[in-house]
Amino acid sequence: MASYNSIVLVKQVPDTSRISGDAMNSDGTIKRSALPAIFNPEDLCALEAALEVKDRFGGTVTVVSMGPPKAADVLRECLYRGADRAILVTDRAAAGSDTLATSYILSQAVKTVGNFDFVFCGRQAIDGDTAQTGPQCAEKLGIPQVAYLLEIIDVKDGKATLKRSIGDGWEIVRTTLPALVTVVRDANEPRPCSSIRVMRNKHKRVPAEVQDPAALAPEDRLEQWSLADIDADLDRCGFAGSPTKVHKVTSIVLKTEGHTSIEATEEGVRALVAELVKDRALA
Amino acid sequence: MTKKNPQGEVWIFAEQQDGKLNDVALELCGKARALADVLGVKVGAVLPGYQVAGLAPTLFAHGVDRVYLVDDPNLRYFTSSPYAFVMETLIDKYAPQIVLYGATPLGRDFGPRVASAIRAGLTADCVELEIGDVVDAKTKEEYKNLLYQIRPAFGGNIVATIVNPERWPQMATVREGVFPKQEPDATRGGEIVEEKIALDPSLLCVEVLERMVQERTVDLKGARIVVSGGAGVGSKENFQLIRDLADALGGAVGASRAAVNCGYIGAEHMVGQTGVTVRPALYIAIGISGAIQHIAGMQDSAKIIAINSDPKAPIFSIARYGIVGDLNQIVPWLIKAVRERPTE
Ligand SMILES: Cc1cc2nc3c(=O)[nH]c(=O)nc-3n(C[C@H](O)[C@H](O)[C@H](O)COP(=O)(O)OP(=O)(O)OC[C@H]3O[C@@H](n4cnc5c(N)ncnc54)[C@H](O)[C@@H]3O)c2cc1C
Ligand SMILES: Cc1cc2nc3c(=O)[nH]c(=O)nc-3n(C[C@H](O)[C@H](O)[C@H](O)COP(=O)(O)OP(=O)(O)OC[C@H]3O[C@@H](n4cnc5c(N)ncnc54)[C@H](O)[C@@H]3O)c2cc1C
């Protein structure tokens, strides 16, 4: 039987649903250190889709993340849930990458892993919120993309039949492989970590996470790649490789005009409706 | 990479499905027109599809000068690669200075692919676009007439202004409902430029086998009055209160994401950053705390009424009228008062 190898791109993100005033700098930027770092939610669904391919058809699951050494947290979590291999791409020269540069770096990493049938991404990361990285990786890899996966219907003879969301409905498409697939939250329920896999993998570290990398036992070592390791052209990475520049950032300031408190009584409500009628707010 | 062309046109991607232009395409026409007038250039619309030439007059009426028509049976149903190839080819040929896409599922699918191929930037989900100058803080170099691309990020908690000083075209996606649709002017004419673009079979490797499009049943965007319920409503059954008030007011029913996630109502009713942006004459938020992502989708409403039992709920900070109390008591009063309201 044919088997299919998947590469999953996973990102560690600040938990933007928990932002409070304390997490904002006065210039409107975010204090990332004040927010818990989590596994980007839709990337868990991307991982689950890859694990499903492995369970149904056989093959391997490799996960790749680009980020600071701390992003190895999400790689360990992938191993706990069933991934076979995990790689962190970390390099100072990657800082400041927009989605064009990010997708260039990730696609170089995917090419370096090689021998894949599927690349799975989350639809969108909850911090940058662009949903652009997946489609851009597909273009850079020269492969087709299928966005917003809902269901893997079948994979056979080098083609995948997939159900995807199209906003106001759905579509069933058949794509040649290899292909890049972005996954939405409704696609699946990510499996939990397995306790055996946690025991087996929890001591693993990338060299950049430890004081003395030389002392890291080979069985405790997670793979760490630099931009040189993936043969990346530095002009296409980081600030240099990013056409978009952040010119200004402001935290959202809410406008408060005249505010009227309405008494929570039947009379209060009646008076409010009368005022709205007078103002022609109720046509 | 394309050359920087300050004489280039302002383009929009004219998204259509099943031969119908979608709203956001027409909303973009108005914005593109305004930007092009500041820059003194023409507005172009790229219209790929099959048997869609009939849509050109609508585009002209909404402010487009030139429609680049690519009519091909292979473009009948959207798939990413051929649509992206069409766009890349035309951008290469005509070097527009700005290209705008709707941030629809379709625009967010192939727009990034275009950007990657031509190695241009793409700013996602803009809520405002303006022309302005920028001085580079380090080199002191001045860039004139750049597109300020203003977008929320970090879950809507910040707003960033993004510019592309060096590498053009300047491309952005814009969510539906962000810019108002301008009144069409049926007397406006324009030029149709027919483009034949050969689609290599390698681009056609995704086939659409089956397709189900649900009619949109909720017109939140067009509603003058929106009544929205949140997690505070408490149950699917109790959500009937929200519907009843909307009925009494002749308004549409909206919801927060928490209400949708709790299963009180379908996702097509969601207002906010990930839902619909609305700007009705009256917005009534009931049992909604006022998370920034919700506010992002309704703060431009002319009048906001908030009903919440927690006096500290952030929703009150943007409300014109606030009622602190139990919605189960207040909403029935409100329905009664509305039904019995005096007529002017
Ligand atoms: C305020 C602000 C605004 C920004 N606006 C823009 C903009 O408009 N346009 C632009 O081009 N860039 C923008 N950026 C930069 C952008 O956030 C980064 O390039 C980021 O690395 C990737 O974009 P994203 O977070 O939107 O991810 P998305 O494109 O939403 O991510 C989609 C998927 O790609 C994969 N993925 C993304 N990043 C990684 C990673 N590091 N490692 C592994 N997998 C990954 C994951 O599977 C993820 O689910 C902005 C940054 C900031 C701070
Ligand atoms: C990336 C991202 C995107 C998001 N996009 C959206 C979006 O588009 N739209 C959206 O809405 N949310 C969005 N959210 C979610 C958002 O952060 C909030 O979680 C959500 O808006 C909360 O909904 P809520 O106000 O109904 O619920 P809650 O925050 O739980 O508030 C319920 C409110 O009801 C009040 N209440 C309870 N009982 C009563 C009663 N009997 N009478 C009166 N009041 C009562 C409570 O005081 C409380 O204020 C997004 C989040 C993220 C991270």
Poorly predicted spans of chain A: none
Task: Work out the number of β strands of chain A.
Answer: 13
Report mean pLDDT of chain A, rounded to a whole number. Answer: 92
Q: Judging by the overall fold, what is the CATH architecture of chain A?
A: 3-Layer(aba) Sandwich
Structural class of chain A: alpha/beta
Shape of chain A: globular
How many domains of chain B, as an integer? 2
Count of β-strands of chain B: 18
Mean pLDDT of chain B: 93
Count up the helices of chain A: 6
Descriptive notes:
The complex is a heterodimer of chains A (283) and B (344). By secondary structure, chain A is an alpha/beta fold. Chain A has a single domain, classed as 3-Layer(aba) Sandwich (Rossmann fold). Chain A has helices spanning 41-57, 72-81, 99-113, 133-141, 195-201, 266-278; strands at 6-9, 12-14, 37-39, 61-66, 85-89, 118-122, 145-156, 159-165, 169-176, 179-183, 223-225, 245-251, 260-262. In chain A, the strands form two sheets. Chain A has a nine-stranded mixed sheet with strand order 9-8-7-10-6-1-4-5-11, with helices on both faces. A two-stranded antiparallel sheet of chain A has the order 2-3. In chain A, helix 2 (72-81) crosses helix 5. In chain A, 48% of the residues are buried. The mean pLDDT of chain A is 92. In chain B, a hairpin with a 2-residue loop joins strand 2 and strand 3 (20-21). By secondary structure, chain B is α/β, with parallel strands linked by helices. Chain B has eight helices and 18 strands. The model of chain B has no long low-confidence stretch (mean pLDDT 93). Chain B is 24% helix and 28% strand. Chain B starts with 9 loop residues before the first strand and ends in a 5-residue tail after the last helix. At the A-B interface, helix 3, helix 4, strand 7, strand 9 and strand 12 of A face helix 3, helix 4, strand 7, strand 9 and strand 10 of B. The complex binds flavin-adenine dinucleotide (2 copies).
